Model the fold of this input.
Amino acid sequence: MKPEEIFGVNAGKVWHVLNNQPPLTVQEIMKLGKLTRDDVMSGLGWLGREGKIEIVEKEGKLAYKLV
Done:
């Protein structure tokens, strides 16, 4: 698979975890989606580039939600 295909697939997985959820940390996304840290980070990067996520603070940590 090409890198952009991998990142796109990971973005879809992360999007499904974040859909209809309050802001989630990377660790929470990993747990709920049964994803690796690399999968989550590449998916968040893709979604961020597309302007589909917002980054907020949650209990002193970065958290992510769909916009």
User: Anything to note?
Assistant: The domain at 3-66 is CATH 1.10.10.10 (Arc Repressor Mutant, subunit A). The chain has three helices and two strands. The longest helix spans residues 3-18. The mean pLDDT is 97.
